[in-house]
Amino acid sequence: MALDLYAKGAKVWIRHPEIVWEEGEVVERSDDKLVIRPAEEGEEEQTIVLKSKDDYPPLKNPDILIGENDLTSLSYLHEPAVLHNLEVRFVQQNSIYTYCGIVLVAINPYERLPIYGNDIIQVYKGQSISSVDPHVYAVAEQAYRQMARDKLNQSVIISGESGAGKTVSAKFSMRYFAAVGGAEGDTRIEDKVLASNPVMESLGNAKTTRNDNSSRFGKYIELGFDKRNHIMGANMRTYLLEKTRVVYQAEEERNYHVFYQLCAMRDEPEMEDLKLLSCEEFAYTKGGECPEVESIDDKEEFSAMKNAFTVIGVKQDAQRVIYRILAAVLHMGNIRYKAKSRSSDDASIPSDDAHFPLVASLLGVDKAQLLKWLCNRKIQTGRETMVSPLNIENAMQARDALAKHTYSQLFNWVVNVVNGVLRSSKKQTSFIGVLDIYGFEIFKKNSFEQFCIN
Question: Is the full-model pTM beyond 0.70?
């Protein structure tokens, strides 16, 4: 470390209890200490005792470098330097993107910006990453050009904490690839690729305390290209769907969007046979006490999902099956249990329970069999099989487990249907992968899937 850099008048960063870091100036220096005056008027000078080189405060970059669009251009690349540069670009230059070498750093503005239209795509099309301002389109263009020029497969990895904007970045990356690699003729496979987004967001995204549209599963989409570098197909892999959310939501959080969309459409004629209630009347959608979200129009989102199903090629009959299964899951959460008798704590379902027959009807299963296995369990001992009754608590857990498994299987089925539509029988020559893995986050009560991500 060049200790001469800490001469009197040197600009440094010092810790602050609220804003984390603040600017300061060295006003006195000796062999064993530094006296620093904070830039904010009225604050007391700080004395830093120098016992090792780790005690020296981070140096501030020259003013001429602050606001650079590439963090690697800074003289000092430490935590306060990075944070300050990103703040200057975001607040003063209205730029949410900054390079850090080959990495693009994005700050979520939590509002829609007019920087993703077709006119902006044309600005970045064919341009090198060093000749244009930082943008997710610049990274996508680099991946596309390297694939086309060098015939090397590419991957765009999008990571960050919950609410950072990963899903939106993945969506815009795919929009760019669809625009520059559009298929010739009438196949319009790129339209089907983009249409998969509203479907997967409805089924796999939910409101959390940090993000109104948080992906609660990991997604890897592989876009296949032919020898002319046109999109010819795609394949989606999903990871770690947060099944716990189906039956439990923390305060101010919601279940998956699709449940609220269905409830919002309950008065429509096509939903009449589902016997839906408001989301505040279903146990699986009222847990977080957040029936509505200002930034989400559930009816509008349902229409977007329905249109996307049509574009993908999912027939109306198949869509009806999906809605029936989703409605069955909602009704499942409202099934009540009681003790069989005063002398027994074995669980039973009251004969007047309105939701149980609806679950059996919507799923198309035998009522007697469903009743049996919602109140009993099978035990295998060697060659013998025994049926043992469940108490009320265990029966409720079994009901919730069935709801989670049913939703998970439906989710996987929809993914397979989407992949069947997007898959091409022709041989691809190269691909670009887009990985959107849901963000690390710590809740009061963490699911197993969240634990795996963290």
Answer: yes
